[in-house]
């Protein structure tokens, strides 16, 4: 019988971000109080799973989301830079019209190609690095399950790639809520199933910035 391995992609919980900044890869953005509860809810969801390997983005919010899982399974958290947030020109700014960065002409040239996208890390490169991180996790947990804590856009683009859908998309259509779990089931090296659930559904709400 072919060996089954599951790699779970866990998005981090809600972030403390009262200014509504697109924080991206900026340091110092921690989980909110609701975000900490979300991380605990996710860890509880995994409690009866066969998790033998735990990986995380280097971002503080991801590491804080991984912490309850590390405690529950007595596992070290292995930092994998390939799980980090997508690069974005608008990092550190508020995004939108009115008082947002879109009212400033110097930013308009970064919006000319939504298919690449022109404002940040190309979708194909993002999918490739996330796929490499998943393969590492799969190999580390052969016959068992691994958890990779990452971010909304990287997880969603990888899912689109896995399901052979186009990578460009509208941010509001991402099925990747806070502390959600996107699971990739492999038989040997072959991907056989993609599933999704929200262990922390009902806790807190989405921040006003996409790609978190």
Automatic annotation (TrEMBL):
One matching Pfam family: His_Phos_1
Q: Which SUPFAM superfamilies match?
A: Phosphoglycerate mutase-like (SSF53254)
> Which SMART domains does this chain map to?
PGAM
Q: Which domain of life is it from?
A: Bacteria
Name this protein carries in UniProt: Histidine phosphatase family protein
Protein's organism: Actinomadura sediminis
